[in-house]
Each structure stands twice: as structure tokens, then as C-alpha cells.
């Protein structure tokens, strides 16, 4: 197979379902090789449908996309050879052990017998499942299943990795562990990662660039910082130790920007120059001998970005029944 | 559920019957608004068609003399099977009610919980009349002769006893286990009791281990007597009714035991 | 770089067999229920052997084909349900992202069904012999019976696969079990066709391919080497396999047609 760049190009991709509005309504995306692209949006926005199309599991209604240079419709087999996917349902066989899953996956990908065992052991260690490797998956926790899912996606060393809401329902520990691994893959192995999520923090932490999707359309796309900066400057919130020093603290802070409504015991100000002013704020307070119990820098969040672009808050914006993309919809469409 | 609050104001018997009425009404409503309520009749009907249709020649085995013919011979078994399975299905229903939490609400609201049991039994009998009628209609359509006259009430009486016994059995199990896993545990013994009996031929024509087992099976007495009623030649009436009533009494105690168990565990 | 078809098929077959064996409840009930039913049926109908013109001395021997067919059916429904579950859980999606050929999945699943059929055949023969069944065709006949079991399992298994691939629902597959059960009964499984009195029943039994499968196996038990019955029986089995296998392959193609 010729060596093509491990990027993703999507042009006017559309997906209709028989019932309901368009799940994906003409999206354009370019993901550079080695990039971590975060696809952020509420439930029903079209994230999973997009991933199903890009992984060749669902044909698009119209539009085109190339994954690693291969057309998703006409060169499906080649696409599948270079991608790995951990999809929303950790689709596993409860009667097989973790190791048996890896062995089967490796065999199907054509790894020679000796290499299968080695690769299996390597991946089990990578995702921290060595102890549970020979237990049946039915006894695995949600976090363990997701980790196995990731390991299975990596068996054949894909150049592009699709992760569909990889940490939904995981405890914070498992979530961090998964984030570390994804970052490592991108950073050390140059794997391109296309990640969908409904968690702001996840997109913020992991993604080089974020595409915000709502009701099948991309409403914003840029680096997390740029998106947030576009919305507004950060604000700083100070809580003086001595409550009667509040007005003094306020007088210092308003030198750096406009005051904002806040709790009675705190002072909040939107910084004119941005986060860089924080050091000056601290120095100014120090010069006036004002001591604060709490000094907080509030960045606008991606939720603020979503709110600005769609008029709705991201958290709670999705509803299971809305639109064409309820969890089961892609399956029904294909049945 | 208003049954509870009203009942608490009446005397002890008022409470018992109004609870029973409320539960029965809810069950009956559930049954008759869902076409699947006739499903207990499906397997019996199928067996009836398969056996009465395919095995008619067995009726000409030397020593087999049942006047109404082989179809009628099978019909009685199918009828009793249908009402017994109706009882089993009620058991599944009770288990489902426990699993969904609805039964807990019933237990909290009811002034006399034994009324809940009676309610389920009443509903089960009501359904059994429908499934029994269905089986009978199908049998009549196949040309089965219906003799017997007044004796048919004897047959119906036995069918009601069988239904009640199966319901109480299922209820006891359902209340002890309180999950859908009660299903196979209710179904299997009932199937065994139904099948380890003179299904294909009368008791006299059985041989081997099944003859012994069938002879000991209380259901056999009921089945034989029921067939007699259909033929218009009642046989073993008193023993059959005694056994039937005895089963109902014993299984009522069993069901009450299950109720106590459920009360203590929730 | 992909794997060869045979590697894929063998690995998937291994998975199929391992999964089944790891569900002892399924294995035991697939062996126990047919035997129980047969015990009750054969004993309860023993009097039938006294019907004038009955082709065997003992109803036990006559009815021995029953558990064999019933068990093959059971295995098929279970395998179909497993495949439907793979579709429901998305495991099929996972597999389809590999270079796996859909035919390999089908072949693997069917190999599992046939393996189970082999085990069932051997166990039932052993139990039957223990209970005094006399196989007129001797040891050769027993081997042929086991082969027959495997072919019937393959045929029914393909039918189960069609259901699974068409509906993608475990519940739908499992609720088809009673229908198969009915198909078995509306045949010459309980009485030879010429002794069926009800005309409509006899017609159905004559049209029902299950009758010929049953009669083929039964001939080895009660008659010995009946060339015609065997030819018809095997012919029917192979015909069933051809039709259902083709159907399963087509259904698999439709299911995977998204790419």
C-alpha cells in the first residue's frame, strides 16, 4: 500500500435518515496528520454518525471524505486497514477473555502467530490490563472494557484513531489514564486522533483543535484557546481575607478592567489585557498590602463558546430523542 | 391505588376483599387490553393440533376405548394444560411486578396483603375462562363431538381447580424469588406434572417407568376424571375433586408462605 | 496486510466453539431437554407400537430420531442468537473493521454449530444405547447417524444465521424457536406417514422436509440399510443446506453492504 499522509479530509458530508431531520448536514473538516481533533457537541448533534461514516460503517448520503488519502466510499477496505476505532459501545464478547479478544483481532489483521502474543502482551501492559487479561470480559468494569476497546483499536498500529466518546461513564481515574494514553499516542507515535466528546474538559485538555457541532452542522472550529479568546477575555475573582478590605481590593482590581457582578465577599473584574495581567494584579495587591484568601482566573469555557454560537448551553443541550441520532439510530438505519 | 386508603377505613374483611378486587381488576384490565393475554393457550393449542392431528391412529390401539374419540381425548389434556399454563403466566406476571417495584407499592398500600394473592387468583381464573374457551372453540372446529351436558360443569370445575393450583404455585415461587428468574422455576415443574401423565394413552395402556410415575401424579386423577366428564360418563369424581381441592389448599399455604417471605425480605 | 480466509475462519470457529462451551447451562440444556422430552414421549406412546402396521417393535427405537433432530434445532437457534447478539452489541462492527471476510464469520459460526452437533450426536447415541435402543445398521449406521446430525445442524444453523442477519435481534431469533418446534411436530416424527389418519396432517407431513430427515435417520435405527430412505434423507439434508447456506451468504452480504 502506498504511503499516503495520515490525515482526514471531509467535504460537504451529509447523512440523512428515513425519519427525522438530517443527522449530518454538510460538514467540512481537515485534520492534519499527527493532530488530535476534538469533535465536541451535545447528544444528537451528529458526532457518532460522522464517526460511523468516516470509519466506513455507514455510507454518506452525499459529500465526500478521504481518510489517510483513501476515499471512504470507494476505498473502504484500504481505509479500514489504516484506521483503528473505539466506538461508543465497547462492543465486546462477554465470554472471551481480554487476551482472547486481542488474539482474535490480531489474527484477523493478519499478524503472524508469534507476533500476536507479543503484541497482545504489549498492549495489555500499555492499557494496564495485564492482571485481568485472562478473565472473561463479562467481569470487567466499564473502565476496563473501554481500555480493552482502546487496546483492540491499536492492535494493527493504525495511523489514524477514531474515538467515539471514549470516557463517557468512566470514573475520573480511568478517564485520566485514557487521556494520558491518547496524548502519548499522538505525541510519541504521531497517530492522528479524531475524538468525539460531550465533555468540555476532554476537548480542552486533549485536542489540538476543536470542532463544535450542533444539529449536524459545524458552528465553530479552531484551537481551544482561540475559540475561547474569540468569545471574551478572562476574568479574575478575588476574595479578601479581611471582609472590610473588599472595597480596597475592588479599587485595585478595577485598574485592570471592568467590574463584574459577584458574590458579596468577592470582587470580580474582566481583564482588559487578558490572563497576562494576572501577575500585575498580584503585584498590585501586594503593594497595597492587601491579602486575599482566594484569587481565581476564570477563562471563558467552551460552553461559553457554544452558548455564543448556538444560544444554548452545551451541558443539557442534547436530548436522547432529538433529531436522527439517538444512540440506536445508526443501527436501525443499517438494518 | 385507592384500595388501600379506603380499605383501611372498613373492617378486616372489607379490606381483604377490596384489595383483592383492586388487584384483580388491574390484572384483568392488563390482560384484556393486550392481545398477548391469550399466549398461555398457544403451546396447548399447538400440541392439540399436533397430537390430535398426527396421532389419531393411536386411538385404534387395542385396549384404547374412549367413546368420544382421540381428538376429545387430547382436547381435555390441552384444556387443562392451557389453564395450568395460565396459572404459570400469572406467576411470571407477579415476578415481573416484583422486579419492577410495582408489587412493593401494592404491599404498602394494601390493608390486607392476602387480598393481593386472592386478586391475582381471581384474575387468573378470569383469563383461564378466555383461554379455555379458545381451546374449546378450536377443538369444536376440528369436529370434536361434545357430549356430556351437565357433566361439562364437572369438567369446568376441575379446570378451575387446576388453574387456581397452578396460580398459587407460581405465586409462591414468584414472591420468594421476586425476579424474572422465577420463570423457568415455575414453568418446569408444571410442564413435568402435565407431561408425566396419561397424555397420549389412558393410564391402563402405559407401561414402564412412566406408568408408575403417572399413577403417582395427582394430576392423573384429575385428568382421567375430566375426560370422563367430557364423555358424559363421570369417573372418579370424588377423588378428583378431593385431590384438586387438596392441592388448592396446600398451595394456598405455600403461596401465603411466599407472601410472608416477600414481606420479611423487602 | 490481511490474513488468509482459512486463518480467519479457524479463529472465528474457535471463538464460536469456546463461547458455546463456556455457557454450561446452554450445553447441558441442549443435551438434557431433548432427552427428557424423548423419555416422556417414547414411554408415553409405547402403546403406539401395537398399532397394526407399525414398522418397529419398540417405540423407543422408533422415536430415537426425535431428540437428534430437536437437539440440532436447539443448537441452531443458539448459534443464531449468538450471531444476532454480535450484531446488537456492535461486535460485528468491530469485526468488520478488520480485513475479515464476511463469509469467514459465517463459516466460523457454522463450524461451531456443526461441532456442537457432533458432540450432541455422540452423547445421544451413547445414552440411547444405554437405554436399550437397537441400531439395526450397526456401527456403520451410528457413524452415519452422527454425520447426519452434523448435516442437519449445518442446515438449521444456516437458517438461524439467516434469521439473525435479517433481524439483527436476539429476541426475534429466540422467539422463532417455537416455530421450528412446530415444524418438527408437523412431520412423521411421531408416527410413520402411512399411519397418520388425519388427511390434512398427512399432507403437511408429506410436504415437510423434516419428515424425510427423520425418516432417513430412523431407517438406520429400525430398518438397517434402506437405500431409498437414506438417499432421500441425505438428499433432503443437502438440499436444505444448499438453500439455507445460499440464503445465509446473501443475508450476510446485505448486512455488510454499508461499505
- Give the low-pLDDT segments of chain C: none
Percent strand of chain B equals under 5%
Overall body shape of chain C: elongated
Oligomer: heterotrimer
| Helix and strand composition category of chain C | mainly alpha
Gyration radius of chain B, rounded: 19 Å
Could you describe the largest sheet of chain B, including whether it forms a barrel?
none
Number of strands of chain B: 0
Mean pLDDT of chain C comes to 89
Shape of chain B: elongated
| Structural class by helix and strand composition of chain B | mainly alpha
The main sheet of chain C comes to: none
With helices defined by DSSP (H or I, 4 residues minimum), what is the helix count of chain C?
Answer: 12
Description:
The complex is a heterotrimer of chains A (335), B (266) and C (259). Chain A has two domains: 8-92 and 140-228 and 307-334, Rossmann fold (3-Layer(aba) Sandwich), CATH 3.40.50.300; 233-298, YebC, transcriptional regulation domain (Alpha-Beta Plaits). Chain A contains twelve helices and 14 strands. Chain A has helices at residues 47-54, 76-82, 98-108, 113-126, 142-154, 172-189, 200-206, 224-231, 246-253, 278-287, 302-310, 329-334, and strands at 8-15, 24-31, 36-40, 62-67, 70-71, 83-86, 160-164, 192-197, 209-214, 217-222, 235-240, 257-260, 267-271, 292-298. Chain A starts with 7 loop residues before the first strand and ends with a helix. Chain B starts with a helix and ends with a helix. Chain B has one domain. By secondary structure, chain B is an all-alpha fold. In chain B, helix 7 runs parallel beside helix 11. Mean pLDDT of chain B is 88; it is low at 1-9. Chain C has one domain. In chain C, helix 2 (24-44) runs antiparallel to helix 4 (65-89), helix 4 (65-89) runs parallel beside helix 7 and helix 4 packs antiparallel against helix 9. Classes of the chains: A alpha/beta (335), B mainly alpha (266), C mainly alpha (259). Chain B binds chain C through residues 42-43, 46, 50-58, 60-64, 195-196, 198-201, 205-210, and chain C through 40, 43-48, 50-52, 178, 181-182, 185-186, 190-191, 195-198, 200-201, 205.
Amino acid at each position: 500500500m502506498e504511503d499516503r499522509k495520515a490525515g482526514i479530509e471531509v467535504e460537504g458530508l451529509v447523512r440523512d435518515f428515513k425519519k427525522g431531520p438530517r443527522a449530518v448536514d454538510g460538514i467540512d473538516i481537515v485534520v492534519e496528520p499527527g493532530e488530535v481533533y476534538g469533535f465536541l457537541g451535545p447528544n444528537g448533534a451528529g458526532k457518532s454518525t460522522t464517526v460511523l461514516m468516516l470509519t466506513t460503517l455507514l455510507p454518506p448520503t452525499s459529500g465526500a471524505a478521504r481518510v489517510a488519502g483513501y476515499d471512504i466510499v470507494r476505498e473502504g477496505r484500504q481505509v479500514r486497514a489504516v484506521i483503528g476505532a473505539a466506538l461508543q459501545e465497547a462492543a465486546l464478547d462477554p465470554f472471551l477473555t481480554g487476551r482472547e479478544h486481542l488474539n482474535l483481532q490480531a489474527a484477523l489483521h493478519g499478524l503472524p502467530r508469534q507476533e500476536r502474543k507479543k503484541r497482545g502482551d504489549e498492549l495489555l501492559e500499555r492499557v494496564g490490563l495485564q492482571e485481568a487479561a485472562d478473565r472473561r470480559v463479562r467481569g470487567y468494569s466499564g473502565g476496563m472494557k473501554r481500555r480493552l476497546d482502546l487496546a483492540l483499536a491499536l492492535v494493527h498500529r493504525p495511523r489514524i484513531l477514531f474515538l467515539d466518546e471514549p470516557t463517557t461513564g468512566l470514573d475520573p481515574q480511568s478517564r485520566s489514564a485514557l487521556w494520558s494514553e491518547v496524548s502519548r499516542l499522538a505525541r510519541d507515535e504521531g497517530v492522528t486522533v479524531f475524538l468525539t466528546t460531550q465533555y468540555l474538559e476532554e476537548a480542552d485538555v486533549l485536542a489540538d483543535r476543536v470542532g463544535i457541532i450542533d444539529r449536524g452542522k459545524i458552528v465553530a472550529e479552531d484551537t481551544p484557546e482561540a475559540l475561547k479568546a474569540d468569545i471574551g477575555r478572562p476574568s479574575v475573582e478575588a476574595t479578601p481575607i479581611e471582609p472590610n478590605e473588599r472595597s480596597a481590593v475592588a479599587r485595585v482590581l478595577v485598574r485592570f478592567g471592568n467590574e463584574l457582578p459577584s458574590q458579596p465577599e468577592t470582587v470580580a473584574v474582566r481583564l482588559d489585557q487578558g490572563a497576562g495581567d494576572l501577575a500585575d494584579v498580584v503585584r498590585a495587591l501586594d503593594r497595597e498590602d492587601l491579602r486575599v484568601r482566594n484569587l481565581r482566573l476564570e477563562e471563558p469555557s467552551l460552553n461559553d463558546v457554544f452558548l455564543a454560537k448556538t444560544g444554548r448551553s452545551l451541558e443539557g443541550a442534547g436530548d436522547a430523542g432529538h433529531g436522527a441520532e439517538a444512540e440506536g439510530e445508526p443501527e436501525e438505519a443499517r438494518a | 391505588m385507592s384500595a388501600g386508603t379506603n380499605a383501611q377505613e372498613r373492617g378486616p374483611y372489607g379490606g381483604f376483599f377490596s384489595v383483592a378486587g383492586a388487584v384483580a381488576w388491574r390484572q384483568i384490565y392488563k390482560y384484556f387490553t393486550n392481545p398477548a393475554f391469550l399466549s398461555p393457550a398457544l403451546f396447548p393449542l399447538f400440541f392439540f393440533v399436533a397430537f390430535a392431528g398426527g396421532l389419531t391412529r393411536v386411538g385404534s390401539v387395542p385396549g384404547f376405548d374412549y367413546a368420544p374419540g382421540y381428538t376429545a381425548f387430547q382436547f381435555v389434556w390441552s384444556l387443562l394444560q392451557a389453564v395450568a399454563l395460565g396459572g404459570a403466566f400469572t406467576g411470571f406476571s407477579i415476578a415481573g411486578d416484583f422486579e419492577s417495584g410495582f408489587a412493593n407499592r401494592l404491599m404498602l398500600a394494601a390493608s390486607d396483603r392476602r387480598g393481593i394473592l386472592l386478586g391475582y387468583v381471581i384474575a387468573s381464573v378470569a383469563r383461564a375462562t378466555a383461554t379455555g374457551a379458545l381451546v374449546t372453540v378450536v377443538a369444536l372446529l376440528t369436529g370434536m363431538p361434545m357430549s356430556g351436558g351437565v357433566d361439562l360443569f364437572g369438567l369446568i370445575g376441575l379446570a378451575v381447580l387446576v388453574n387456581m393450583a397452578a396460580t398459587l404455585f407460581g405465586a409462591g415461587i414468584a414472591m420468594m424469588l421476586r425476579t424474572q428468574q422465577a420463570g423457568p422455576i415455575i414453568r418446569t415443574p408444571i410442564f413435568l406434572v402435565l407431561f408425566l401423565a396419561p397424555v397420549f394413552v389412558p393410564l391402563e395402556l402405559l407401561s414402564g417407568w412412566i406408568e408408575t410415575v403417572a399413577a403417582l401424579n395427582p394430576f392423573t386423577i384429575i385428568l382421567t376424571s375430566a375426560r370422563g366428564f367430557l364423555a358424559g360418563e363421570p369417573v372418579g369424581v370424588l377423588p378428583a375433586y378431593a385431590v384438586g381441592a387438596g392441592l388448592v389448599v396446600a398451595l394456598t399455604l405455600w403461596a401465603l408462605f411466599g407472601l410472608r417471605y416477600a414481606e420479611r425480605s423487602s | 496486510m490481511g490474513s488468509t480466509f482459512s486463518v480467519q475462519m479457524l479463529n472465528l470457529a474457535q471463538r464460536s466453539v469456546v463461547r458455546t462451551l463456556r455457557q454450561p447451562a446452554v450445553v447441558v440444556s441442549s443435551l438434557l431437554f431433548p432427552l427428557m422430552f424423548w423419555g416422556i414421549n417414547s414411554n408415553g406412546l409405547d402403546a403406539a407400537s401395537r398399532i397394526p402396521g407399525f414398522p418397529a417393535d419398540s417405540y423407543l427405537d422408533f422415536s430415537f430420531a426425535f431428540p437428534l433432530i430437536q437437539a440440532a434445532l436447539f443448537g441452531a437457534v443458539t448459534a443464531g442468537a449468538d450471531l444476532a447478539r454480535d450484531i446488537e452489541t456492535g461486535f460485528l462492527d468491530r469485526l468488520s473493521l478488520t480485513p475479515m471476510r464476511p463469509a469467514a464469520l459465517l463459516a466460523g459460526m457454522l463450524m461451531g454449530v456443526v461441532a456442537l452437533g457432533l458432540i450432541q450426536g455422540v452423547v445421544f447415541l451413547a445414552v440411547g444405547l444405554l437405554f436399550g435402543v437397537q441400531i439395526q445398521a450397526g456401527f456403520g449406521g451410528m457413524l452415519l447417524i452422527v454425520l447426519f446430525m452434523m448435516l442437519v445442524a449445518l442446515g438449521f444453523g444456516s437458517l438461524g444465521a439467516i434469521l439473525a442477519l435479517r433481524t439483527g435481534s436476539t429476541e426475534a431469533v429466540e422467539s422463532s424457536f417455537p416455530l421450528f418446534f412446530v415444524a418438527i411436530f408437523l412431520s412423521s416424527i411421531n408416527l410413520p406417514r402411512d399411519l397418520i389418519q388425519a388427511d390434512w396432517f398427512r399432507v403437511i407431513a408429506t410436504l415437510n422436509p423434516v419428515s424425510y430427515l427423520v425418516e432417513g435417520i430412523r431407517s438406520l435405527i429400525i430398518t438397517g440399510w434402506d437405500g431409498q430412505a437414506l438417499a432421500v434423507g441425505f438428499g433432503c439434508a443437502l438440499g436444505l443446506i444448499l438453500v439455507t447456506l445460499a440464503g445465509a451468504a446473501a443475508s450476510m452480504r446485505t448486512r455488510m453492504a454499508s461499505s
